[in-house]
Amino acid sequence: xxxxxxxxxxxxxxxxxxxxxxxxxxxxxxxxxxxxxxxxxxxxxxxxxxxxxxxxxxxxxxxxxxxxxxxxxxxxxxxxxxxxxxxxxxxxxxxxxxxxxxxxxxxxxxxxxxxxxxxxx
Amino acid sequence: xxxxxxxxxxxxxxxxxxxxxxxxxxxxxxxxxxxxxxxxxxxxxxxxxxxxxxxxxxxxxxxxxxxxxxxxxxxxxxxxxxxxxxxxxxxxxxxxxxxxxxxxxxx
Lengths: 121, 107
Known about the structure:
heterodimer, A: mainly beta, seven-stranded mixed sheet, four-stranded antiparallel sheet, 11 strands, 0% helix, globular, B: mainly beta, 10 strands
């Protein structure tokens, strides 16, 4: 079964750090771009970051640039999001999602179930 | 940044009726437009990509149309399992922005 499973969410104080993981299975992880998308409680979807197949290229939303770092380990079929200097407004469910780039941009066809991050004092 | 605007915010529809959802981009995104369905407590699910191509396993009652800046998602005959929030998203440039969503609720 094609699957993405996030983990690593939790409760953290403002200014703290957290690392999310997204484990892929059922497909050739190394051939897909992967993204992080978040959703604050009761709100819509916000694209956060993306990484290409070999990790050589990354892109970030302005709201997280300089604080979050996306990375991947294709030997472990795992995507990561290192989140530093966390703020209350970073509180959200964080989803990972894959994109079959294949030379041209594409939609996100598989999503994980999400992991909740709560930033509060 | 391309702003995606969806309308209406809420759509009240009876089962069996047709639902028409709109999505407007602040500048052209060509056909690089996707629609997702999200039910409470669940992850989004891809319905439509390339503005009009149904994703794998998506029923034929879902259809998408449009290009450039104006897009439409149509559910031809609403089923009970279709009550959900629907998001459009462009993937033409960075950042890959989403619309604010349209909630389809039972009338």
